[in-house]
């Protein structure tokens, strides 16, 4: 079966600075720089683009959407809590109506810039703290589903298998995609090991590539305790902010293609 390879991109922000003397904009970035986004867009098939709430800004969003369109990569809205200081990784106890509005706002912002680049947003993937919360938090999961359904019910919603958000999205009639993570360790029940725990983030590109090959072919990987865990993802994520992300993504793609697995976006790339 074909598989999608996605990455979280556009997770930087520009420092306030004047234009260059020739009228062009500076490519310098502040903390949380864009890293290897342009190179990753030549490897992955789907791009989860930060929408300015946990990272990114309008200039970065416009650049990354344009590059995604040029590379034939599907564009997804990487929506998050409004938490730039915490990179969107902290849980925020928000009113569902407020969360719904903010998710719609983020999708709309990215969609406008994607349209200017000649593309469209075709899916939504929550980020960090929000992603983890809506595995179990029914009210927030329902708010995210309501936001996607209200904005555009043709959008695909990406999430963790067996999560509340995907269950509610399926019930709403939305198309859903199950995601696995190339560079993250798993608990025995198939959730992500918190980043605060030892071994939560993987770094060995060869080991990660073999894990992804196992995921894609229905073979078990080792959970954090070393026991077998079977994941059957529609899409595999390589985090763009993981050290060595480009090398990891290339190794994963080479392993999958070497095994005859087709890499293709699960959503339309326009």
Quick recap of the structure?
The chain is an alpha/beta fold and 270 residues long.
Can you characterise this structure?
There is one protein chain. This protein is of the alpha/beta class and 270 residues long. It is 35% helix and 14% strand. It has helices at 37-40, 58-71, 96-116, 128-133, 138-151, 164-172, 205-216, 245-258; strands at residues 4-9, 46-50, 74-78, 121-124, 156-159, 176-181, 220-222, 228-230, 235-237. It has a seven-stranded parallel beta barrel, surrounded by four helices. α2 links the parallel β2 and β3. The chain is globular.
- Give the biggest sheet: 7 strands, parallel, barrel
- The general outline is globular
Alpha carbon gyration radius: 18 Å
**Derived structural class:** alpha/beta
Could you tell me the strand content as a percent range? 5-15%
State the helical fraction: 25-40%
The tally of beta strands, per DSSP, is 9
H/E element sequence:
EHEHEHEHHEHEHEEEH
Number of helices: 8
Average of per-residue pLDDT values: 90
Strand order within the widest beta sheet? 1-2-3-4-5-6-9
Detail the poorly predicted runs: 16-32
> How many angstroms separate the termini?
22 Å
């Amino acid at each position: 079966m074909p598989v999608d390879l996605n990455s979280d991109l556009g997770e930087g922000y520009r420092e306030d600075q004047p234009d260059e003397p020739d009228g062009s904009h500076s490519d310098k970035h502040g903390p949380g720089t864009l890293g290897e986004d342009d190179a990753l867009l030549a490897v992955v098939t789907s791009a989860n683009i930060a929408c300015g709430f946990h990272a990114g800004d309008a200039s970065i969003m416009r650049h990354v959407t344009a590059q995604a369109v040029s590379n034939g990569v599907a564009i997804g809205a990487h929506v998050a809590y409004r938490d730039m200081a915490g990179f969107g990784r902290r849980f925020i106890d928000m009113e569902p109506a407020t969360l719904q509005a903010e998710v719609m706002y983020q999708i709309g912002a990215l969609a406008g810039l994607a349209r200017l680049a000649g593309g469209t947003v075709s899916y939504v993937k929550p980020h960090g703290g929000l992603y983890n919360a809506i595995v179990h938090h029914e009210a927030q999961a329902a708010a995210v589903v309501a936001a996607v359904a209200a904005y555009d019910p043709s959008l695909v919603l990406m999430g963790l298998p067996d999560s509340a958000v995907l269950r509610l999205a399926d019930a709403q009639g939305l198309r859903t995609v199950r995601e696995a993570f190339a560079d993250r360790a798993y608990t025995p029940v198939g959730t992500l090991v918190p980043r605060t725990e030892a071994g939560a983030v993987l770094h060995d590109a060869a080991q990660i590539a073999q894990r992804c090959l196992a995921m894609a072919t229905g073979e078990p990987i080792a959970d954090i305790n070393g026991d077998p865990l079977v994941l059957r993802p529609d899409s595999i994520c390589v985090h763009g902010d993981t050290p060595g992300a480009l090398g990891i993504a290339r190794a994963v793609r080479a392993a999958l293609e070497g095994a005859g697995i087709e890499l293709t976006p699960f959503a339309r790339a326009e």
